[in-house]
Recover the amino acids of this structure.
């Protein structure tokens, strides 16, 4: 049985787009190691061992393959089960280890050394190693550059002809930036290899009409793919007039991309043959995998494992396919014959069933696509991979995504936020797919209402829409019109009623409309020209909505020509409701020399409300791009190491009969009847590790104990009920406040105990200066990762669901937005009842810092599933946490976006 952590194994993408598998070395690797060493050049051996070392002795092999995974750790990279690289460290002191790596000559320059250094560094940090040292020959410039470019803090010395490099393993902003830049380049390259193949094989090409194999082949040929196409059929000599081969192995030329259209039970053999052939990527349109249940999921996992081990990426299975409209490729490796023309939009869809309808709708609206990927079950290639590719793709200006789940939510929000700084990202997120929800997720996970999902997308810069129609409404504006500089909207047209409808829709959407300019039913093109010229020249107008009813005027292209001309030269967006058209009608479309629709085309909507809704989305996105994203402030009094000790100790104390940690309630409040409760002192210690002071409360079982507690704490005090099903908030029915004498305390305890009984779990706590009671909740959401929620702690706010949510970790700008996002936030910015000066105004700055600290806690520890601070009283003296609960559990496989680069696990 292996004695190393499972997460030390990973599939990784290399700089050329290929893949490799990283895992710890094991004794059974002896023969692989000997063969690996035998393929190394004398120069590579000399650089590694500082001497000729043509053959490894049996003693060497045993020493290199037998490690303890503590003080001595070695990782290997394999491709098709062949060892191609090794990295190892040997501990030399309490927190220091010597590191060395070697990469087979044939695979040097593919980024193996850099990614192995990231993984061995992460393993070392887990084992308490804080520094690496490496002795390098001066002429080994490649290895020196790997260490220098890693972004770590490095010190260099030179002694007796050897350079000693010292690397601080603590991640820095520089090292994180370097790691993510390499990740972006590698993942982008892996997608580029799929979208720009030089040759394609269709495995399962059929002579029977309307089969998926024949459809895939005919669509490739009809699109005029610019490279050779190889049908693969076990018997036919030709399919669709093209010479066929019995197996992909029989094809005499290289094959870059294979479209797999065979039965699910035959796919494994096909993938194995593709691996031996050296195929770069697979598009598996076959069904019968993860969508069918556990057996299909196992088959799907094996498909991905085999492909990745051989350096191949997989689109699908159960997908529509991929397309690239670049004329240098003209790739239509999909099951849809309706491929839109070339355009600036990149589209990713998880749904294969919707894919064909989506492609048809794009074409119907007169829009064009740069690339299209329908990933089906998303076993390997996901929307995150496409985001990495589109970030630097000059042909893609707008990104559309139809999402049923987010495979790696943390990574999605990070990548989307980065991409959205330069290109609009529009997403339809449907519900209901279990594929993105980790199994075994704790019941305490933070659930989110739909409006919260929208706000979290907006925080990341993603425009979330409700359906495909709205997606295209927004996309045609983003793709062919400039972004509005602000919310002020000019309205003009030949219908007073339609103008008023636009104005009302603007107000409802949060825009600021000017009074509509009614040109009258007899308005001519010249009238529209003058009005549109004036509106566009007005600095107080940021965008213009034009409404035109042809029924009041003979149908003419003159008005359309005016809008088209103004849009061609202006820097403000123009949208219209024109002739009942939806999309980019020919009258409003500008075309380039090649006939493609180009910028300056004016999108038309069937109803004014549709036009305004799209314009509102574009305006909010534009303002998001202009806003200050804030910073992650340095916070004092954070002790992550101590927090880790407390969490690990707590979970270790709560093992069941089989030694498996159980979920536990971890609370600052006295809990008598919960089986897995933890001492309040430990809970306060955990919060204190992040600078969060939870006020002590003393559990009491009698009036005498209550009086004794009050006298120890000091008056005034409160007596409150701490039962989970009773309100803990100031003013609730389970609390008696402002108790200043022993008789007050005795009477309060007796009254509450007589009414609520011993199940109320009564406690005494020092009384806080009155302020505004609030609630902070944070935790892990299966679709987004760590999320922080905020609201006021009163019945009205709860009934109205007046809460706001943001992704963790919060910047200072995020925290300020979160506080102000709730409708009842004005209560925090006025004077409380009875206050007479601004000095008594609630300390909102302290509240915002508390939100940031909570966000750091839930982001740092996957074991923290849910945090509930209730109430947090905000007064002039600060933000005071009077009650706190934490739900701890063993961290599920949430695929956190941290640590060394890796592809998603194949089971999710």
């Amino acid at each position: 049985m292996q004695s190393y952590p499972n997460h030390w194994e990973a599939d990784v993408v290399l700089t050329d787009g290929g893949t490799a598998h990283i895992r710890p070395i094991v004794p059974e690797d002896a023969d692989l190691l000997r063969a690996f060493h035998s393929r190394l050049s004398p120069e590579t051996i000399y650089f590694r061992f500082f001497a000729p070392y043509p053959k490894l002795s049996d003693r060497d092999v045993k020493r290199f393959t037998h490690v303890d995974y503590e003080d001595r750790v070695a990782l290997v990279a394999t491709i098709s089960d062949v060892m191609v690289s090794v990295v190892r460290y040997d501990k030399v002191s309490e927190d220091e280890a010597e590191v060395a790596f070697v990469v087979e000559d044939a695979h040097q320059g593919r980024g193996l050394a850099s990614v192995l250094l990231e993984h061995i560094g992460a393993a070392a940090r887990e084992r308490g190693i804080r520094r690496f040292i490496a002795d390098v020959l001066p002429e080994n410039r490649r290895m020196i550059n790997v260490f220098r470019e890693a972004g770590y803090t490095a010190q260099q010395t030179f002694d007796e002809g050897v350079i000693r490099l010292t690397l601080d393993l603590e991640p820095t902003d520089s090292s994180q930036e370097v790691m993510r830049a390499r990740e972006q380049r590698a993942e982008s390259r892996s997608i580029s290899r799929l979208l720009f193949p030089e040759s394609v094989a269709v495995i399962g090409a059929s002579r029977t009409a309307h089969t998926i194999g024949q459809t895939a082949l005919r669509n490739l040929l009809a699109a005029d793919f610019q490279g050779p196409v190889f049908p693969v059929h076990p018997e036919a000599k030709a399919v669709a007039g093209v010479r066929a081969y019995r197996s992909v192995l029989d094809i005499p030329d290289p094959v870059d991309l294979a479209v797999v259209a065979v039965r699910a039970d035959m796919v494994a053999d096909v993938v194995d043959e593709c691996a031996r052939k050296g195929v770069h990527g697979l598009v598996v349109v076959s069904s019968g995998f993860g969508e069918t249940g556990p057996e299909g999921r196992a088959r799907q996992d094996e498909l991905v494992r085999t492909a990745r081990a051989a350096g191949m990426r997989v689109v699908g299975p159960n997908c529509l396919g991929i397309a690239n409209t670049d004329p240098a490729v003209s790739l239509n490796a999909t099951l849809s014959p309706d491929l839109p023309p070339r355009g600036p939009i990149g589209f990713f869809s998880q749904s294969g069933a919707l894919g064909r309808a989506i492609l048809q709708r794009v074409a119907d609206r007169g829009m064009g696509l740069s690339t299209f990927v329908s990933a089906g079950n998303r076993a390997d290639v996901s929307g995150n991979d496409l985001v990495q590719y589109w970030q630097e793709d000059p042909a893609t200006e707008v990104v559309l995504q139809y999402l049923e789940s987010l495979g790696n939510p943390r990574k999605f929000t990070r990548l989307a936020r980065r991409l959205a700084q330069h290109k609009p990202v529009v997403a339809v997120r449907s519900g209901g797919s279990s594929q993105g929800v980790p199994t075994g997720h704790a019941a305490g996970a933070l659930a989110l209402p739909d409006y919260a999902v929208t706000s979290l997308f907006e925080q990341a810069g993603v425009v979330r829409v409700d359906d495909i129609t709205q997606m295209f409404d927004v996309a045609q504006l983003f793709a062919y019109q400039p972004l509005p500089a602000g919310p002020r909207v000019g309205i003009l047209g030949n219908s007073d009623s339609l103008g008023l409808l636009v104005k009302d829709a603007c107000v409802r959407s949060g825009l600021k409309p000017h009074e509509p300019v009614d040109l009258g039913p007899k308005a001519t093109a010249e009238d529209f020209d003058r009005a549109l010229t004036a509106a566009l020249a007005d600095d107080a107008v940021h965008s213009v909505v034009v409404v035109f009813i042809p029924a009041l005027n003979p149908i003419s292209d003159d008005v359309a020509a005016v809008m088209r001309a103004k849009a061609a030269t202006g820097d403000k967006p123009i949208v219209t409701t024109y002739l009942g058209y939806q999309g980019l009608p020919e009258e409003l479309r500008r075309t380039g020399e090649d006939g493609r629709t180009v910028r300056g085309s004016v999108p038309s909507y069937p109803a004014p409300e549709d036009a305004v809704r799209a314009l509102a989305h574009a305006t909010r996105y534009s303002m998001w791009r202009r806003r200050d994203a804030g910073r992650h402030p340095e916070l004092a009094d954070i002790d992550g190491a101590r927090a880790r000790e407390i969490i690990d100790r707590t979970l270790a104390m709560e093992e069941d009969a089989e030694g498996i940690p159980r979920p536990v309630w971890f609370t600052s409040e006295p809990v008598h009847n919960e089986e897995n409760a933890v001492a309040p002192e430990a809970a306060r210690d955990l919060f204190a590790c992040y600078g969060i002071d939870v006020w002590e409360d003393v559990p009491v079982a009698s009036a005498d104990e209550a009086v004794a507690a009050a006298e120890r704490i000091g008056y005034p005090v409160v007596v409150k009920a701490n039962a989970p099903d009773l309100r803990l908030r100031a003013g609730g029915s389970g609390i008696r406040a402002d108790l200043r004498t022993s008789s007050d305390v005795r009477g309060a305890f007796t009254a509450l105990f007589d009414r609520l009984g011993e199940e109320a779990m009564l406690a005494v706590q020092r009384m806080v200066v009155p302020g505004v009671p609030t609630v902070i909740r944070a935790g892990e959401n299966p679709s987004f990762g760590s999320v922080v929620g905020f609201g006021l702690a009163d019945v009205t706010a709860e009934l109205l669901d007046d809460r706001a949510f943001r992704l963790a970790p919060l910047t200072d700008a995020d925290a300020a937005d979160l506080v102000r996002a709730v409708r009842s936030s004005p209560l925090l910015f006025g004077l409380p009842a009875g206050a007479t000066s601004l000095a008594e105004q609630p300390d909102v700055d302290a509240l915002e810092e508390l939100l940031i600290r909570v966000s750091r806690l839930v982001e740092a520890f996957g074991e923290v599933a849910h945090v509930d601070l209730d109430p947090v009283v905000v007064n002039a003296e600060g933000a005071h946490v009077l009650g706190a609960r934490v739900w701890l559990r063993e961290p599920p496989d949430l695929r956190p976006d941290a640590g060394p680069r890796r592809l998603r696990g194949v089971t999710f």
